[in-house]
Design goal:
With 118 residues, the protein is of the alpha+beta class. The chain contains two helices and five strands. The chain has one domain (6-106).
Amino acid sequence: MLDMLNPTRDQVTKFQQEHEVSIDAQHLETPLVITVQIPKKQQTLHQTHYARKFITSRNEGGSVLIVVNPDVSNVHSVENQGEIDTFEDFVEKTLAHTLEDKEESDQGPKVCCGASCS
């Protein structure tokens, strides 16, 4: 968590502890990148966590590229998350998105990779 303001660093640390997720937030000039790993409640044959990589820059008008399980896939989507003027704005929006992802992961997968995952 490089070059983050202390309140933002503390917010990310607290979020990680409260929600049992791993977050790597890098404050680079461009692009802004946050990688989130959410441990799976149920063990599967393949992955032990759900991962998301969020990528944007200050000039993108709120568009965020979200790569699903970036270590094993190039599946991605683009979402408009509204105004992102600062890295702290990006962290706030990513944490909110992560809560939604975590709730979904806690309920178990809705679709599978095509192989038997249970």
